[in-house]
Amino acid sequence: DAHSRRFVEMSAAFMLLMGMSCYIEEWIFRSLPGFDFYWTVAFVELGVFAAAAAVQRHLGSGKVAPRSAPMRLYWASAICLAMSQSLGKEAYRHLNYATGTIVKSGKLVPTIAISVLWLRRSVPAAEWVAAVLLVTSAGLMALGESAVEVSFNPIGLVISLAQLVFAAMLGNIQERILRDYNAPIGEAMLYSNGLGMLVVFVFLVAKQELAPATAYFSEQPTAMLMLLLRSATFFAGGLAVTSLTKDFGTAAATAVGTARKSLTVLLSFALFPKPFHINYVYGVVAFLVADLVYLHISLAKAAARAAQDRPKLHVDIGGYQIVGRGADEKGARKSGTDDDLHEV
After folding, report:
1. How far, in Å, CA of 331 to CA of 70, rounded?
2. How far apart, in whole angstroms, are the C-alpha atoms of residue 47 and residue 190?
3. What is the value of pTM for the model shown?
4. Which of 83, 112, 174, 262 is most buried (CB neighbours < 10 A)?
5. What are the pLDDT digits (tens) for 183-229?
6. Residue ranges with strand state E in 68-160
7. Cβ-based neighbours of 296, under 8 Å, separated by 6 or more
């Protein structure tokens, strides 16, 4: 019927856009001659999202509304966002794309650590199982890569761990911005990404990457075009999953997002061949099982949120999260800026 056809079309659009984004990103990292500007990738990405948020806020309300959340929280969010995205890119300097993607998907691990050690909360057994599987998968992938890839450097795992910590802190900060201060999604997206750009810019200057990156992209305009296309397709994929969430619910969007992450890893091996090692097979299998367990957890949480008046939407699309408020079982939402896409 028309409803099912729309679900298939929107899911396919999301998978296609995110697949294109990931393919372009790996192509940039692996195929562009002389490319060594990973923090610049994060800078451009944050800029595209900040610009999109500014345009969307203007089109949505026609005027600039007063800021809802305090600047100290937006600075904290921006710092965590800037470090999470920049370190996530930097890790690919030392790890292949498949290994890096699996390690970056392990945000559940520091989230559990924060819940248990800091917040003193109990954690369901299923989350422990998913965390163990993710750690096992990452370990197997790293062992496999270290055996066959001369470019492998364990510092990439350390960088990825730091990225996961920043990502876990980011989720808590942005949840407070949205929940405690009822900030519009467009506002949170604009301030987090805009201020995050400034943070990354400071690092670009300190690392002396700004001048050579500017020269590199000036001499190779195709490279900049691909970088902008990558960010644009990522943003469009985020819009697609937000529409999917609004029309079909968090559970459906989570299922599609989970399948997308698994497909990204498989396509990385198919489109960018890597030296074979049996640990890759074991690692990918462990990752797929972890994704299924995490899907079960997400579906259970979505069912619990569905029983509340205005549940929070929270769909992880791989490094970024789409967060919103106000969807009920029929996908109805408040109008205006609450419909904005929030990229964290």
Report:
1. 30
2. 10
3. 0.79
4. 174
5. 888 888 899 999 999 999 999 999 999 999 999 999 999 999 999 99
6. none
7. 126
